[in-house]
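C-alpha cells
________________
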Amino acid sequence: MIRVVKPGINIDFIGKRKAALLVSCVMILTGVASMVIKGGLNLGIDFAGGTMVQIRFQEDTGPDEIRKGLEDIGLKDSIIQQFGEKTANEYLIRVEKTVPDMEGLGDKIQETFQEVYGKDSIEMRRVEMVGPQVGKDLRRKGLLAVLYAMGGILLYITWRFEFRFAVGAVVALFHDVVITVGIFSLTDKEFTLPVLAAILTIVGYSLNDTIVVYDRIRENLRKMARKKLEETVNSSINETLSRTILTSCTTLFVVGALLVLGGGVIHDFAFTLMIGVIVGTYSSIFVASPILILWEERFPGKRRRRL
C-alpha cells in the first residue's frame, strides 16, 4: 500500500476543530453576503432564460465594437463576454429576451455582423435559446435534485451507520455546496446546468471520502472502547489520512488538466469540481467527524447500539 504519511502519525485535527469552525463560518458568511449584495447568483440562460450566441471573428475585435454592431438591432444592452483564449477572438453574447423576441434572433445577429465584418469574417459557433418559464422550471428542479440527494444520503447513512453519523455527513455536504456556490458568487461566474451537475458530483465525491473516515471510526469504536471519543475520532482521521491525500491529489490532477486544457465549454464545470474536491476533503476531516463529537456533547450518557 502506498503511503504519503508516516505510519503512526498523530496530528491533532480534532484539537483544531474550533479554528476550522471559524474558517468555515467566515467562508460561508462571505459567500452568502456576496449573494445578498448582488441579488443572487449570476444565472446562465439555462436558469434565467434568454438567448446565448457564440461567435468567432476572423479579425481582432472587442466588446465595444461588438456592442456597437448590436445597437442597430436594439441589443446594445446585451452581456458580452470573451470566450476561451484571448487570441481566439471568440465571444459569447447573452440576450435577455422573451420567447417571441427570441425567434430568429440568431439569424438577425449573424446578418448584422456580416454587414459590419464581411460575410466570411464571422462564424456562428452556437445559438441556445431558453424561455423564462423553462428557466424557472429548471431552477426548481435543480434545487430539488440537491435536496433529494441530501435526503437520500441522510437515510442511507442512518441505515448504514447511525443517525449521528448521518447528521455529520449531511452537514458536511451542505457546507461544501454553500461554500462552492458562494465562491461562484464572489467570482461572478455564470451558474449553469453543467455547474449544477458538477455540484451533484461534488456531493458524491465528498460523501465517499466521509464514508471512508466514518468506517474507520466505527471500527475503532470497537477497538478503543475505553478511550475518549475525541481520541478515537482523531486516530481514525490520521489512519485514513494517507488514503485521503492520495485520492484528493489524484482527482485534482485530472480536474486540473480539464481546467487548463479542456477549453471554455468545460471550464466552469472543471472549476466547480476543483473547488469541490478541495472543500470536500477539508470537510471530511474538519466538519463531518467533529459533528460526531458535538452530537455526543449535546446528547451525553446515551448508550449506542453495538456497532
Remarks:
- Strands lie at 42-43, 50-57, 79-83, 90-95, 122-130, 190-191.
